[in-house]
Design brief:
The chain contains 23 helices and six strands. The protein is globular and about 80 Å long.
C-alpha cells in the first residue's frame, strides 16, 4: 500500500496502548454486577472523576481530525465550534440535570413517555438510537482513516478490528469500566495534544530563523487565519452563521440534553451537586484547554506550510492533516503515542455511546415490551449482547459517512439532520407546559418530512441562508440546521395550539417549573435540610431490609439525620472517587457508636474491605 506512515516502533506503541486499555477496562468489569452498575456505575462517583470522563468523551477522535482540518484551512477560528456550550449550561445545570437525576430516568426516551406518551417514547427511541449509532460509525471511520495508513491494511478491515478491540474492554465492565478507562484516557488526550503543540513549536524554531515557537506560529499565519471567528456567511464550507446554528444551537443542545452517553456520565455521579461541579469545571476550565488540544495540529501545519516549503504536501487531503503533521514533527515512538491518543479519543467516545445505546435498547425496547419479567442478571447479559449488535450496525454505516469529502462535513451533516426534531421535542417539553403529546409526535414525523423536503429542494432552505452560497450538488452544509429547527419548532408550536394540554398534576416534576419539588420526589418524603457533619464508622453485617442501614444514635445526631433520610457511605480513600461506596436509607438507630449495620448485599455492592473505616454523610 502507498504512503505507509510511521515506523515499527510506532506500531508497537499503538498495539501496546490497546492492550493496556483493554486489560484495564476488563478489570473493572467485576464492579458491574447489576444493570444499574452497568449503565450508571451505581450512581456513586465524585465530580472530578466525572469531569475527566467527560473530557475523554467530549474529545472524540473526530475532534482531532475535523478541528485540525479547519484549523489548517482557516486558522484560530477553528476553536469557534468547540467553545459554544456555555450559554446553555445554566439551563442544563438547574433544569435538565435535576429532572433526569431526581426522577431516576433510565434513558432520554423514558422522559418522553413520562412527559408525553408511550408512542412518543418509541419514536424518540428510534431517533436517538439512529443518532448514537451514526455517531459511533463516524468515530470508527475517523480512527480507521489514520490507522490503515500506518498498518497498511484495508480501511474497512481496520474498522472491524477497532470495533472488536473496543468490545473486549467494555463488554463486561459497562459504565464503571468506561469511567475508569476514561480516567486514564482523559489525561492521555490532554497531555498528547499539548505535547504535539510543544513539538510543533520546536519544529518551527528548528526550521526557521525564529527563536520563539509562538512568535514563529503567529508570524506565519495570515491576518485572516488569526481571527477568532470565521467570516459571517462565507465560505460556504465554514462560516460563522452556519456553524452557530449547527454547532452552537442544534449541536450544543443535542450534546447537553440528548446525548445519552453524556447523560449517563452525570447519572453516575453521587449527587446532583457533584454533577453540577463536573459540568461547570468542564465548561470553565477544560473546554478552553481542549480547544487548543484538538486544533493545534492544524495551526502548526499551516505555519509550517507557509514557512517551510515542501515540508507538507500541497494537495494534503482534509482528513489527513492531523496524521501528516504529527508524523512530520514527532520522532519514532512519539508518533505512535500521539496516534494512541487518537485511539484514546475514539475509544472514550465510542465506549460511551455503545454503553448508552445498549441502555436505550434495554430500558426503552426490551423492558417495555417484556414488562421487565426477566431477572436483572439476564438483562445484564442482554445489555452486553446489545452493545455488540450496535457495533455491527455502526460498522455497516461507515461506507456511507466515508462518501463525504471530509469527516468535518460528514459530522456536520449528521448533526444538523438528526438532532433538530429531538432538540425541539425535549426543549419545548422541559420549558413549555402547554406543549402536548400530539405536538411532539407531529414534531418528530411532520418535522422530519419537511427536513427531507429541504434536502431534496434546497430552495426551501434559501430564505434561511443569510447569503451563504448554494453549492450545486451539495446544498447548504450547515445553515440547514436553522431550517430544520424552524420547521420542527413550527410544526410543534402550531399543533400545540390546536390540541388539548394535559392537566398540570400529570406534569409534576417533568418541567423546570417544578425543580423545587424534585428532591422530595426523589426521596419520597420531605427533605431534611439540617446541616450535619460526616462520621467515620466501621461496618457490621446485619440482616436488614433492602437499602436500609443502621447507625448509632450518637452518629445520627452528629450527621443531623432521622429515620428515612438518605445517606452516602464510601471508602475513606478519596482518590477512589467513590468506586467503593453505596447509597442507603437510615433505619432505626442502635447503641454501638462508630458502627454502621449493613446487609451482605450492600457490602458486596460497595466492595468494602473488612477492617477499613468508612465515611458516611447525610444526603437529604
Amino acid at each position: 500500500m502507498e504512503n505507509i506512515l510511521g515506523t515499527n516502533l510506532d506500531r508497537i506503541v499503538i498495539l501496546a496502548y490497546f492492550a493496556v486499555v483493554m486489560g484495564f477496562g476488563a478489570y473493572f468489569g467485576k464492579y458491574s454486577k447489576t444493570t444499574s452498575d452497568y449503565f450508571f456505575g451505581g450512581r456513586r462517583f465524585a465530580w472530578w472523576l466525572i469531569t475527566i470522563s467527560i473530557v475523554a468523551t467530549g474529545i472524540g477522535s473526530h475532534s482531532f481530525v475535523k478541528y485540525s482540518t479547519k484549523a489548517y484551512q482557516y486558522g484560530f477560528s477553528s476553536t469557534m465550534t468547540y467553545m459554544n456550550d456555555w450559554f446553555f449550561m445554566p439551563l442544563f445545570l438547574f433544569g435538565w440535570l435535576p429532572i433526569i437525576y431526581y426522577l431516576r430516568l433510565g434513558s432520554i426516551p423514558e422522559y418522553f413517555e413520562r412527559r408525553f406518551s408511550r408512542e412518543a417514547r418509541y419514536i424518540a427511541t428510534f431517533m436517538i438510537l439512529m443518532y448514537m449509532i451514526g455517531y459511533i460509525a463516524i468515530q470508527f471511520l475517523t480512527l480507521a482513516t489514520a490507522l490503515y495508513k500506518i498498518y497498511g491494511i484495508p480501511l474497512m478491515l481496520t474498522v472491524v478490528l477497532i470495533a472488536i478491540a473496543t468490545t473486549i474492554y467494555m463488554h463486561f465492565g459497562g459504565q464503571t469500566s468506561v469511567i475508569f478507562t476514561d480516567l486514564i484516557q482523559g489525561f492521555i488526550l490532554i497531555f498528547a495534544g499539548l505535547l504535539l503543540f510543544s513539538l510543533g513549536l520546536s519544529f518551527l524554531v528548528e526550521n526557521t530563523s525564529y527563536s520563539s515557537g509562538l512568535k514563529a506560529l503567529w508570524d506565519n499565519l495570515s491576518p485572516l487565519e488569526k481571527l477568532p471567528l470565521a467570516n459571517f456567511n462565507s465560505p460556504p464550507d465554514f462560516n460563522f452563521v452556519g456553524i452557530f446554528w449547527q454547532d452552537g444551537i442544534a449541536g450544543s443542545i443535542g450534546f447537553l440534553f440528548l446525548n445519552q452517553g453524556l447523560i449517563m456520565r452525570f447519572m453516575a455521579a453521587r449527587s446532583v451537586n457533584e454533577g453540577r461541579k463536573a459540568a461547570a469545571f468542564n465548561v470553565l476550565v477544560i473546554l478552553p484547554i481542549s480547544a487548543i488540544v484538538v486544533s493545534n495540529a492544524g495551526w502548526i501545519g499551516k505555519a509550517i506550510s507557509n514557512s517551510v516549503p515542501g515540508a507538507l504536501p500541497i494537495d494534503l487531503a482534509p482528513n489527513d492533516v492531523f496524521v501528516a503533521v504529527a508524523n512530520l514533527i514527532t520522532s519514532p515512538g512519539v508518533f505512535g503515542f500521539i496516534i494512541a491518543a487518537l485511539c484514546a479519543a475514539l475509544m472514550s467516545t465510542s465506549d460511551t455511546l455503545v454503553n448508552a445505546s445498549s441502555s436505550v435498547i434495554i430500558n426503552d425496547i426490551y423492558r417495555p415490551l417484556t414488562k421487565n419479567k426477566s431477572s436483572d442478571k439476564e438483562q445484564l447479559r442482554l445489555a452486553r449482547l446489545a452493545s455488540v449488535v450496535v457495533k455491527v450496525i455502526a460498522v455497516c454505516l461507515v461506507p456511507f459517512f466515508n462518501s463525504f469529502e471530509s469527516i468535518y462535513e460528514a459530522h456536520g451533516w449528521f448533526h444538523s439532520t438528526f438532532t433538530p426534531p429531538l432538540v425541539v421535542g425535549v426543549f419545548l417539553g422541559i420549558f413549555w407546559k402547554r406543549f402536548t403529546s400530539t405536538a411532539v409526535i407531529a414534531t418528530f414525523i411532520g418535522g422530519a418530512f419537511l427536513m427531507i423536503l429541504g434536502q431534496m429542494y434546497p430552495a426551501l432552505i434559501s430564505p434561511f441562508s443569510h447569503g451563504i452560497e448554494l453549492r450545486p450538488g451539495r446544498g447548504y452544509s450547515y445553515i440547514g440546521a436553522l431550517y430544520n429547527l424552524f420547521v420542527c419548532a413550527g410544526v410543534g408550536v402550531l399543533v400545540t395550539f390546536f390540541t388539548k394540554p394535559v392537566s398540570e398534576s400529570k406534569l409534576t416534576g417533568l418541567t423546570v417549573f417544578d425543580v423545587h419539588k424534585l428532591k422530595n420526589i426523589f426521596k419520597g418524603s420531605d427533605v431534611n435540610e439540617s446541616i450535619g457533619k460526616p462520621v467515620v464508622v466501621h461496618y457490621k453485617i446485619k440482616d436488614l431490609n433492602e437499602g436500609m442501614v443502621s447507625f448509632s444514635k450518637e452518629d445520627m445526631e452528629i450527621t443531623k439525620s432521622k429515620k428515612g433520610d438518605l445517606v452516602y457511605i464510601q471508602d475513606q480513600r478519596w482518590w477512589l472517587g467513590g468506586l467503593k461506596s453505596i447509597h442507603g436509607t437510615f433505619d432505626e438507630p442502635h447503641d454501638e457508636k462508630g458502627i454502621v449495620y449493613i446487609n451482605e448485599t450492600q457490602c458486596d455492592s460497595g466492595m468494602f474491605i473488612k477492617g477499613l473505616a468508612l465515611k458516611a454523610e447525610k444526603e437529604m
